[in-house]
Each structure stands twice: as C-alpha cells, then as structure tokens.
Amino acid sequence: MVQGKDPGSGGVIFTRRNFLKGSGAAMAATAAVTQTAAQQPAAAATRVVSGAKEITLNVNGADHKVAVEPRTTLLEVLRDKLNLTGCKDLKDVYVDGADTVLVDGKATYAGVMLALQAEGKKIRTVESLRGDGQPDPVVTGFVKHDAMQCGFCTPGFVMAMRALLDKQPNPTLDEIREGLGGNICRCGTYDGITKCALELAKGGA
Ligand code: FES
C-alpha cells in the first residue's frame, strides 16, 4: 500500500498506514487552524482562490472534462462533479480509508490526492464493481460474509481488497492484513472482511 517516493531515491516513504499514524496530529492541527479562522471570520470570507483549470480525468474507463482549482481534491471531483458518491467524505464521518479509490491500480485516499495529480491516470471507484448484472466477486463476498454494519467504510474496504487481489490473487492472512491496513472500520466488521478475503484468495477472484 505504498504511495510515495521510491525507497531507492532516498525520499520519504508515504504509506496509507503511516498516514493513519499522522492523522491524529493532523486533526489537532486542523482544529487549531479552524479555531484561528473562526476568530477572523471577515478575513476568511473575503479570501478568493483562483486559477481554475480544465483537466481530463479518466474515471471508470470514461474521460471527463472538469474544471478544478489547484486545491481541489480528487474526492471532491468524484463526489461533487461526477456524482460518484461511493467514496466517502471523511468530513462527514471520520473513518479512515472510506475514501479509497484505485489510481493506476493502487489503493489511494481520494481525499488527500489533488485532482491535478490524477490527470493522465486511470481512476476506478467502487461504482465500477457493479458489473452488468454480475457484481465483482469482492462485492458479493462482502454480502455473503455479512462484512458490514453501518456500511460507511465498506466501499473503501472493497476497493482496497480489489487492489490487493489484483496484485496478489492468493494472499496470505498477513498479506491481507497488510493490504487492508490503511482502512478502519469503527463498527468492527474485521472478522467478516477477513473471511471474505480468505475465501476469495482460495478462489483466485
Ligand atoms: Fe460501519 Fe465499517 S464503519 S461497517
């Protein structure tokens, strides 16, 4: 689940797991910034962000032209402009990994990737797994093993599992835990999710 610079380049390694470790500090920092902004409402209200640019994003096999600002995230484009709401906005309910999509086959947090960075890449959302009357085996596996409760985290887990199985069709239990390590389920449905992954691994889905 590595997203970041090549180890050989001497750069910093950014994994979805490392992101989770840093998220607590980030939330505290965000709260502090929010407090400061709240104390200066007039300044915030007059701030204008410009520099919108039209780009083409390939999502679920189709090209889409969208106008984005430099700060626009991939998640905002998917949900607000393309109406692909399977990937979740973590501002609504904080569940890590619920915004997972595939970018060139890698499980990626859409909420921390800028839309500009996604240009030229192949993006897949959970909507692509619906199939033509024949859902992806990961989707049917989640249903079979009752691997969800509230369901908020489920699209993210499904996409992370799809990425794992595409890369390693027969993963071990440790590889499953590693592959899904960037996703959190606050309802605690890990048992069903793991059973689903193990069954799909045996079947080579
Ligand atoms: Fe509710 Fe995972 S957060 S099913």
Task: Describe, in plain words, how this protein is organized in 3D.
A 5-stranded mixed beta sheet has the order 2-1-5-3-4, with helices on both faces. The protein is built from 8 helices and 5 strands. A hairpin with a 2-residue loop joins strand 3 and strand 4 (106-109). Helix 5 (137-144) packs across helix 8. With 205 residues, it is α+β, with helices and mostly antiparallel strands. It has helices at 16-39, 41-46, 74-81, 115-118, 137-144, 154-167, 173-179, 190-203, and strands spanning 53-59, 62-68, 100-103, 106-109, 122-124. The protein is globular, with a radius of gyration of 18 Å. The two termini are 19 Å apart. It has 2 domains: 1-47; 51-205, Roll (Ubiquitin-like (UB roll)), CATH 3.10.20.30. FE2/S2 (inorganic) cluster is lined by residues 95, 148-154, 185-187, 189.
